[in-house]
Amino acid sequence: MTTQDQQHPQYRGDRATIDSLPAGNPTDYHLAELARLKIRYQGFPGARDIQQDLDQIMQKWQLTEADLYARTREIHAKGQVYRKSAQDQEDWL
After folding, report:
1. 33, 75, 70, 69: which is closest to 54 by C-alpha?
2. Helices (H) and strands (E) in the chain — how many of each?
3. Measured between alpha carbons, how far is residue 15 from residues 10, 12, 44, 66 in Å?
4. CA nearest neighbour of 43 among 73, 76, 3
5. Cα separation, 46 vs 13, whole angstroms
6. φ, ψ for residue 46 (rounded to 5)?
7. For residue 46, what are the β-bridge partners?
8. Bridge partners of 6?
9. Are 34 and 58 a contacting pair, CB within 8 Å?
10. What b/e string do you get for 15-47 counting C-beta neighbours within 10 Å, with b at 16 or more?
11. How far apart are CA 76 and CA 7, in angstroms?
């Protein structure tokens, strides 16, 4: 029995996110995005290029999965990574 790779429905947007991650000095947002994508593609039967790129980014940032998840748990505990600041609100609100 051969396993055929599948196309992930979020591939295009996830590829753009990965391509926007910096080579070094990640912010909390970048770390959270990396962890989110690592979880999304863990065990997924396809998108091998994305999985390899995520592993390469972790190596560049000198992170193990355990380190990445520990850091992102701390980031999410603060609750600020995906929230907009009060300065981002539009004037008419």
Report:
1. 33
2. 4, 0
3. 9, 5, 15, 23
4. 3
5. 16
6. 160, -170
7. 6
8. 46
9. yes
10. eebbeebeeeebebebbbbbbebbeebeeeeeb
11. 29
Tokens standing for residue 20 = 């926007």
Q: Yes or no: say if 18 and 37 are a contact pair by the CB < 8 Å rule.
A: yes
Global pTM value: 0.83
Asked if residue 45 lies in contact with residue 71, where contact means CB atoms within 8 angstroms, the answer is: no
Amino acid, res. 88: D
pLDDT tier, 84 (very low <50, low <70, confident <90, very high otherwise): low
Domain ranges for the chain, please list them.
Answer: 11-81
Assess contact for 15 and 50: CB atoms under 8 A: yes
The rounded distance, in Å, linking the Cα atoms of 34 and 60 is 12
Burial class (CB in 10 A: 0-12, 13-18, 19+), 57: buried
Q: pLDDT tens, 39-67?
A: 999 999 999 999 999 999 999 999 999 99
